[in-house]
Design a protein that fits this description.
The complex is a heterodimer of chains A (about 250) and B (about 180). Chain A is mostly helical. Chain A has 2 domains: about 30 residues, no CATH class; about 200 residues, no CATH class. Helix content of chain A is about 65%, strand content about 0%. Chain B has a domain of about 120 residues. A two-stranded antiparallel sheet of chain B has the order 1-2. In chain B, a hairpin with a 6-residue loop joins strand 1 and strand 2. In chain B, helix 2 packs antiparallel against helix 3, helix 2 packs antiparallel against helix 5 and helix 3 packs antiparallel against helix 4. Classes of the chains: A mainly alpha (about 250), B mainly alpha (about 180). The interface between A and B is large, with 46 and 40 residues. The complex binds zinc ion.
Chain lengths: ~250, ~180
C-alpha cells in the first residue's frame, strides 16, 4: 500500500486532513467524517405513503372477501382474491424496484442459514399446530388457510400447496419483508422496522388470536431480512412453514 | 504518517465523551468536541446538546396523548372482556378482548421505550379495527365519529413528534450525549 492510497482513503472530506480509522469526527476541523445519505423527506407521512397505500388497499380487499358477499363462493372466490392481491403486490414491487432489487440477489445466500431457517420453520409449524389444538383455535379463522376449499379439486394437495404455501411465501415476503420493510427502514431504526412490519403482517390476516404466532413469525422473517439483506431465507422459511400446515391439515394431524 | 498516530503518548480523556485524545488535538475524533477550542466554542457544543435534549423532551410531551390512548384502549378492552365473560357469559369474546387488552399493553410498554414504532403500529391496528367494524356493521362508521377523529389526529401528531424525537436522539447519539441502545 502506498502512502498516497492511504491518504486518499482516509482524508477528511472537509479539510483533507488524514484521519484515524474509527473516527466519526475530523480531529483537525471537527466536522463529521461520514455524512450518511440522509433522506430529506420532510413530513414522515411522505415516505410512509406506499406503506399506508399498500396496507389499506390490501385490507379493504381482504375485508370485502371475508365480511361481504362481493366475491364468488368457495374456490372461485379464493382464486379471485389471490389474483387481486398478487396484482396489487406486483404493482408495488415494480414501483419500488430500484430500492428493493438487491433483496432478490442469490449471491451471499448461505446454505447453513437457509437450512437453519427451514428447520426453524418446521419446528415452528409443529409448535403452532400444537398450540392451536391446545387453545382450540383453527387456522380457518385466518383468511388465508382454507385448505378444505381444495377438497373437490382433482389434486387437492397440489392446489393447496400452490395457493396456501407457495403464493403467500412469495408475495407476503415480497411485500412485508420487501418494499414495506424497505420503506419503514428509511424512516426508523432497523429494529423498529422489524417490529412494525411484523405487526402489519400479523393484523393483515384479520384474525386476532392468530397474532400469537403471526407476530413472532413476522419478527423472525423480518430479522432475517434485516440481517442478511435478502428475501430468500424468508421465502424458504415461509414456504416450509405454510407447507407443513397444509400437510397437517391434509393428513389430519 | 502512521508513525505519528501510533506513538503511545499519554492520552487525555475527552471532556465530553471520555474517549482518549492526544494533547493538543483540536477536536475529539469520537464526538467532535472542540478539545483545544476556546471556552466559547466548548460552551456552544454543550449548548447544542442541551437544546437537542430540550427538543426531545418537548416532543415527548406531544406524544403523551397518543401513549395515553394506547393505555386507555388496554383498560377499555380489559373491562369489556370482564363484562362479556362474567356478565354475558360469553367466554370466547372475553378471551379475544383480554388478548386485545394485552396487545395494547405490549404497545404501551413499547411506546415508552420507542414511541415511533409503537404509535405507528397502534395507528395501523386502530384503523384496521375501525375498518373491519364498518364492514361488519356499516352504520358504525358515524358512531362516535368525533372521538374517532380525535384519536386518529392524536396518533398522526404522535407519529410526527416521535419522528422528530428520533432525529434529535440520533444527533445526540453522534455527540455521545445519550447512551446508544439497539
Ligand atoms: Zn469526545
Amino acid at each position: 500500500m502506498s502512502d498516497i492510497d492511504v491518504e486518499i482513503q482516509t482524508a477528511c472530506p472537509h479539510c483533507q486532513a488524514p484521519y484515524q480509522p474509527g473516527d466519526a469526527f475530523c480531529q483537525i476541523c471537527g466536522k463529521e467524517l461520514v455524512v450518511e445519505p440522509r433522506d430529506d423527506f420532510g413530513d414522515v407521512f411522505v415516505p410512509l405513503r406506499p406503506v399506508l397505500l399498500y396496507y389499506f388497499m390490501l385490507l379493504l380487499v381482504l375485508a370485502l372477501y371475508k365480511f361481504t358477499d362481493s366475491f364468488p363462493d368457495g374456490l372461485a372466490g379464493m382464486i379471485v382474491i389471490t389474483l387481486v392481491t398478487v396484482v396489487i403486490t406486483v404493482a408495488f414491487t415494480v414501483e419500488s424496484w430500484a430500492t428493493t432489487r438487491k433483496l432478490y440477489s442469490f449471491s451471499g445466500v448461505r446454505w447453513s442459514i437457509l437450512g437453519l431457517t427451514i428447520g426453524g420453520a418446521m419446528v415452528g409449524s409443529l409448535v403452532v399446530n400444537m398450540l392451536c389444538d391446545f387453545i382450540n383455535a383453527s387456522f380457518h379463522d385466518d383468511v388465508f388457510y382454507n385448505t378444505y376449499l381444495f377438497a373437490d379439486t382433482p389434486y387437492p394437495l397440489l392446489f393447496a400447496t400452490l395457493m396456501i404455501a407457495l403464493e403467500p411465501a412469495i408475495f407476503e415476503e415480497v411485500a412485508f419483508r420487501g418494499f414495506l420493510f424497505t420503506s419503514l427502514a428509511r424512516i426508523t431504526k432497523g429494529v423498529n422496522a422489524v417490529y412494525v412490519s411484523a405487526f402489519l403482517f400479523g393484523i393483515m390476516h384479520l384474525s386476532i388470536i392468530s397474532l400469537i404466532w403471526l407476530v413472532p413469525i413476522g419478527i423472525a422473517f423480518a430479522e432475517l431480512r434485516r440481517r442478511y439483506d435478502t428475501l430468500w431465507y424468508g421465502m424458504a422459511g415461509h414456504f416450509v412453514y405454510n407447507f407443513c400446515i397444509v400437510l397437517y391439515e391434509y393428513f389430519g394431524i | 504518517m502512521t508513525e505519528s498516530f501510533s506513538v503511545p503518548a499519554a492520552t487525555i480523556p475527552c471532556e465530553n465523551c471520555s474517549a482518549p485524545t492526544q494533547p493538543g488535538q483540536a477536536f475529539c475524533g469520537a464526538c467532535g468536541y472542540p478539545q483545544s477550542g476556546t471556552e466559547d466554542q466548548k460552551n456552544r457544543f454543550r449548548d447544542s446538546i442541551r437544546i437537542k435534549k430540550v427538543l426531545v423532551a418537548e416532543t415527548q410531551k406531544e406524544t403523551r396523548t397518543a401513549k395515553t390512548i394506547i393505555f386507555v384502549f388496554a383498560g377499555l378492552y380489559f373491562c369489556l372482556g370482564l363484562f362479556h365473560g362474567f356478565v354475558a357469559d360469553d367466554f370466547p369474546t372475553m378471551i379475544v378482548e383480554l388478548f386485545i387488552c394485552l396487545l395494547f399493553l405490549v404497545l404501551g410498554a413499547w411506546s415508552s421505550k420507542n414511541p415511533f414504532g409503537a404509535i405507528l403500529t397502534a395507528f395501523f391496528i386502530y384503523l384496521t379495527f375501525q375498518i373491519v367494524e364498518v364492514f361488519i356493521d356499516p352504520t358504525s362508521l358515524f358512531k362516535g365519529i368525533i372521538v374517532k377523529i380525535f384519536i386518529i389526529g392524536a396518533f398522526v401528531k404522535g407519529i410526527r413528534s416521535a419522528m422528530e424525537a428520533q432525529k434529535y436522539i440520533k444527533e445526540l447519539e453522534k455527540m455521545k450525549a445519550v447512551r446508544t441502545d439497539e
